Amino acid sequence: MIMWIMGILLIASFACFVIYAMRGGNLTVGFFILTIVWTLIYFMGVPFGVGESFDVIEETFAQPALTYGPTIIQIICGAWFGRVLVDTGIAASISYRTAKVGEKSPILATIAVALVTCLIFTSAYGVGSAIAIGVILFPILGRLGVPKRVSVPVFTLSIGAAMWINNVMFVQFAAFYQGYESPDGQVIEWGNHYLSFGIPAMIVQMTGVIIFILINSKAIKNGTPYEVGDPADRPTDIPDVPVWTYVLPVVPVALSILFQWDSVPALFLASIIAFLGTGYMKTYKGFVEILNSTAKTAIGDIGSLIIMLLVLRFFQQTAVTVMADFGPALTSIVPNNEFILALAVCILAPLALFRGPLELYGAGSAVIGILMGMGVFNAWFLFAMLVVPSMTCISACVTQSWNMWAVNYNELEPKTFLKNGVPVYWLCSFPIMGLASLLLF
């Protein structure tokens, strides 16, 4: 009887969290409250022999936070390198020169903008970096007459495509699976195994973006030039940086693939090369100033994210502990056929929108906690199950910070953005999930 009561309370609290997340509630607050509620529900059953007592402070709050340190370091280094690309002028120079090459053909220019956006964000991360690049690219696309309903999804989908190999994004997703004991002993970690899937996934999504551009080629050709944003907010000159620095965004990934470098030294080396190549190391004072300013801005950009991820770790630990006792019951309900589950997730991928039950940075965090509590699935399978639809939010949902900024900056109706962006990613999710089944799990 007590198991039924606990199950009903868990489902009810989970449903409340889903509604809260989908209505735009603060996720840090939501995760913390859900952690407390689920812990209290769990202890309801302890006097009745359901589950075992545990040290809440140590096992729920202390250990998850302390073991999360390496992930936080990777996120900080990745955000710092992204800010270095922006503040040294490398990202802006790439953007300007790419648009100039294709300015005689708006279709070619739009494709070039998509590709260069993806290139930059393979290492850059955060709404600050997206704004810095967007205020350059959107006015260029506007002058070429590219309709806003095309230019905005192209920009956000290209950022989303880059996230498949962006280490900062990977370690955030991997945090949801930290501590999970896969039946076959596999763990979620950055390296060639993941990149063998991440790179093809990025290519698939960028192919989808290019097809989207070509489908809208007539509208792009016949488009009327327009102005976007305040001209005073845009850089007026192309930053004078060496052309060879344009390859720096992919240097950290290349070092990981070729030499199996960890992301932290790879990002540090790429940052130093960026400072050196753009002349910021000519004087000690100049180097210290750019070093301090980029670090300060980068950490400021991700400060709230880090706190949210720490609270998320608290909830994840609680969810795994609580759901362990419900594993046998869930196993009889949830299909254990990987093909059926993967296909269902692709079909239902839009449920990730608005922080829904398939979005890890929303109600999906509770879903993955439940699935891990069952203890029967391969770690990489669970990773693909929720990460593939979660990319919808990054690529085409207005709840993602840089997507929201792009929509507002271009004065585009959110429903128009969703109508054009969601189908592209939704269709891409099927081949991407297929790649995951072949290359990842």
UniProtKB/TrEMBL annotation:
The chain crosses the membrane at residues 31-51, 72-95, 107-140, 152-174, 194-215, 243-261, 267-287, 299-319, 339-358, 422-440. It comes from Bifidobacterium lemurum. This is Gluconate:proton symporter. Keywords: Membrane, Transmembrane, Transmembrane helix.
